[in-house]
Amino acid sequence: MSEDNPHSSRGSASKTWLERIASLFNAEPQDISELEHIISEAANRQLIDEDTKGMLHGVLDVSNMRARDIMIPRSQMATLDIEQSISEILPTLLDNNHSRYPVVNEDKDHIEGILLVKDLLQFAFDAEAPAFHIRDLLRPAVIIPESKRVDALLKEFRQKRYHMAIVVDEYGGVSGLVTIEDILEQIVGEIEDEHDDAEDADIKKMATNVYQVSALTPLDDFNERFNTTFNEEEADTIGGIVLHAFGHMPERGESIELDGLMFKVSKANSRRLLQLQVISGKPPTATEQD
């Protein structure tokens, strides 16, 4: 008789939907594509908003990522040399505004430890503080392989209360670093802090002719900064131009040359480009700032 009862039919459908949502959070995922479909359907039914949908997709992406997929490449690591004095390291601290830095001995393959900027405060405000060597303030560096699962790394970050890990390749050479912020950004999107202004958030000079560029940089800003002529009717952002040129969703490490610039994907997930490395042989514009 339940077949003739429309209320029973709706109740059954509702129950099935609720069970599907519950399984998303409580059951061991068996089929990622099915979970993604459930998330999209939940957003379509306005059971969750678009931000929540994006974060849930981000969680699913993170579960399939390795440290190599999200690390800051070796070439973009801001480091300090263990032999530098406090006056010598200040420019690096001011240019980068990080809270911690790997300290190296001669080159980036020899990490001596991690310096927390807050550990310098006692010397900055105490005129009678004794002289010190950077070595005296170092904290141990956490070393992980490129193959480390990102979800497992996030768990370790939380449990052991550290915020940065040095990533090494199979031969023990340093290939990059990962911070807890890098993982969280895969889930919630780009995180800007109070030190970021519009230009610093979008385009940052890393070395001579080498720049770190957000894929969301407005195309008119990019054209002005690099003297390029990308068609602003074709895309709103430089990431859109690069994505169109590739013709597919590129993975980290893929590169392409456009208008005299080399674009290398520094950070991306399965849905969008996040960060690009841009290598330019052109002279800087008048507004260029080191």
In a few lines, what is going on in this structure?
This protein is of the alpha+beta class. The protein has 11 helices and 12 strands. The protein folds into 3 domains: 63 residues, no CATH class; 121 residues, CBS-domain; 80 residues, Uridine Diphospho-n-acetylenolpyruvylglucosamine Reductase, domain 3 (2-Layer Sandwich).
Description:
By secondary structure, this protein is α+β, with helices and mostly antiparallel strands. The protein has three domains: 2-64, no CATH class; 68-188, CBS-domain; 201-280, 2-Layer Sandwich (Uridine Diphospho-n-acetylenolpyruvylglucosamine Reductase, domain 3), CATH 3.30.465. Helix content is 37%, strand content 22%. The protein has eleven helices and twelve strands. The strands form three sheets. A five-stranded antiparallel β-sheet has the order 8-9-12-11-10. It has a four-stranded mixed β-sheet with strand order 1-7-6-5. Strands 2-3-4 form a three-stranded mixed β-sheet, with no helix packed on it. Helix 2 runs antiparallel to helix 3. The longest helix is centred in the first third of the chain and has 21 residues, at 6-26. The chain is globular and about 65 Å long.
Radius of gyration: 23 Å
CATH superfamily name of the largest domain?
Answer: CBS-domain
Helix content: 25-40%
- Ends: how far apart? 77 Å
Output the helix-strand order.
HHHHEEHEEHEHEEHHEEHHEEE
Count of helix runs:
11
Which class of secondary structure composition applies to the elements?
Answer: alpha+beta
CATH topology of the largest domain: CBS-domain
Contiguous uncertain segments of 5+ residues: 6-15, 194-200, 283-290
